[in-house]
Structures are given as C-alpha cells and as structure tokens.
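hiii, so i know i said id send this last week but things got crazy w the move. better late than never?? heres the sequnce for the chain we talked about at the cafe, plus the structure i predicted for it. fair warning i was half asleep when i ran it
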Amino acid sequence: MNQLDRQRILRNSDQLIQNTNYAVLKNECYQRRMLSEGMISLIEDRYLDEATRHKKLFEKITKRGPTAFQTLLDICQVNFPAAYKLLKGGPAAGLNQSQNLAVGQHETFNSTFHPNRRRAVSANYGESSSQLAIQQQKLERFSIGSRSISAEDEDVKNNNQEIETTDGKMRLVEYTEPVQEMYKVELTTRPQRSRLLEVYPMTSTSHRGVIFIVNIIRYKNNTHPTRNGAEVDRDNLVSLFRQLGFKVFYYEDLTNEDFQWLVKELKNSPHLSAECFAFYILAHGNHNKGWDKIYLHENSILYVHDILKLFNNENCPKLINRPKLFFFSICRGDKADFGQYRSDANTERDGMINRNKEPPTNMPTYADMYICFSTVPGFSAHRDTNHGSWLVESMCQVWTKHAHDTDVEQLMKLVGAEMARYRTENFGMQTLASEQFGFYKLLYLNPGYSVE
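okay and structure toks below
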C-alpha cells in the first residue's frame, strides 16, 4: 500500500471507526478477498471488545498489499459515504499543512545518493503514478527461489510476531518466515587464524550464533514518525544472519514490557549456549547529557547502557567468554552532518602505567563486547525509504563479500568506509561509531564452515 494511503487510514482511524460498521466492514473485506477468514478470526479471538476489533481491522487492511486502499474505497463508497469522503480528502487527510510539509521533508531527506547505485526516490514523491505502482508492487511482491511472496505472506509474518501465550505475554519464537534475499554471503572453506591474537571459536553447526532483532517501525499515537523503509532492514538482516548460521529472533513494535519479558525469556533459554550472541535494535533515538536513549513503540525510553548491562558477565553468565555484538541503528541527536574543514590537533600523554604488577585473576563485569552505533553523539542517522537504513545496507554489502576471511572489527571499519560514501539530497553524511569492552580476541564468522 502507498505510504500516504496507509498514513491516511491510521491517522483517521478514530473517525473511520465512527463512520463505519464493524460487522459490515469485516464481511465486505472477506467477500472481496482482502482478508481471509483466519485473519478475521485472529482479531476476534485476541480482542474481546468491538471497538478494539474495529481498530485492528483497519490496521490489518493497511498491510494487505497495493490494491487494499482502492478496495477499502470501493467498500466505503457503497456502504459508508462519510468514511469515503474522509479517505478521499486530499493528499494526507487528517494532517494539517505543517504536518504534511514535515512528512514530505522527512521522505526527501531520506532519499540518498550512493555512487554504486541509482539515487533512491521516496515511494511517494518524484515519480508518476504508474511508476509508483510498479515500484510498490516490487516492494510488496517478490520472488524467493520458485516461491512468490505476496501481501498474504507478509501478513503471515506479522501474525507470527503477534502470537502470545495464554497469560498475554509474547512468546520467544525463532523467526522462520521467508524473506527477500538481496545479498549472497561468500562462504569459507577453512577457519581463519591469527598469528598474534586469539580467535573466538566459530565452527559449530547447530550453535553457531543467535541474534535478537528489535525493529520499531510504528509508534503509538504517532508520537514519532513511522520509520519508512524499516521493512527492508528486516529482510536484509534476517537474510544476512541466517546465511551466517545464526538463529534469528525478530520482533517489531515492542513495548518496554514486551522487550523486558522477551529478554528474560531469552536469557533463561538454551539458545544462549551459542558461540556468538548478537543484538540489533532499529528505532528512533536521541543522545542527551552522555546518555543514549531508544524510543520503543509506546514512547517508553530504553537506555543503551541498560541493554549492555542486561548481557554483561554479572547478569548473563551464560555468555561469559563468548563474543557479544551490539548494533544500535538509532539517531543520537538531530544535527545533520554536512562535514567540516580539516584542522590540526595536538596530542598529550595522560600518564604512565606500572607494568610490573601481577595480572589479576578476577573477571571484569563487561568483557567480550563489541558495540556499534549508526552515528556519533549529537547527530542523526539516515534511512532510505526504498533501501532501508544506511548502516544495515552498508553492513549487508560488506559482510556478504568479506565475512569469509575478515574479522568483525575489520568488517565494521569497511562498513564505516562504505557508509561514508552516502549522501542525502542535501549532501548530509553519517559517521559510524564503535567501541569495545574487553573484546581482545578476533571474531571470524566462518560462514559455511563447521566442525561438530
């Protein structure tokens, strides 16, 4: 569905609910094959009151493919004239002029130039309606091998993340749905070694790695803009880490309560016996007074240092001596980076180290951690509405080509160099930031190689 049409439905959902009848609408959606019986049953089994069912029905319609909006218009034209007028009311009904401008600026800002590909254009700006229809169909329907993935399958993906236990908690379930495979990982035939440094073991077939991905796309009550293009990040990351031999746990639009529960389940599960653990979160964020904030679905705040604390040696002993990778694809401020002129800098020596002391035998609280941010403190991170986040796209391009013979820290330097070539239409750029806590060994991912 066109992004503006989706926003038109979501921003006017309260008025649409007032001007439509739930029973008639669901029957029309079923008769016109926009929703299956199973989809409607899922809504009615999970939500008891009709008002919530009504709202969830409209949310489901926004995920039903490129023809869903026109089908909804046809239904409303016949059955709900007031709702029809509401949906036909201007380019973005429910938005005032300044909000419309903000949406346009946001989309244009996220159109990017990269020397290796044609500049991406927002799915809603700068092209004819026929071009947009073709482009939207490419986004919402693609092929994986001999199987065609359509909006029906997309809905299955969404339903997979909505499964709850009987007590209302979300389940920790490996993400097994098919995704678009844009990149192919080059495999290695032998494990990589180092003459100077130890190497983390990465040769298991069944316990190679596990990654926990949180992708906040939409925000409750529109407290933050929808992260258009984040679905592309989902497919790219899931495809990449599956090819690297990782078990993937993927969740969208989590609240703080959901997040804490799932992390607790993960830490208590046998999955953390894997040789490597990776954590990836994509969301709106900010950096204030030295603290990095992440905004979850209901606008609750999650701090980066609290995430690291959850998985340190004290709070997650299962991961002691195992490599832990953390990726934060978030803004760390609102400044756009347009570059600076070079200037010379002096260096000073802070002090001397006594190297004669015996090394201690106790273990550090934070160790074997590599942390990566999509940008530096104070600056915004960029996301292309067609190709996804700059960090994810650059990472997939580099890791698929070089993970077979290059360690993770060197891979991320290559990612940073690749991302440095990107520019927004206003020539804004982005700088990768990383740090490590006791990450003293080399981590080679050894895709395709295993010894059991």
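btw The CA atoms of residues 310 and 316 lie 7 Å apart. thought thatd interest u
miss u guys!!
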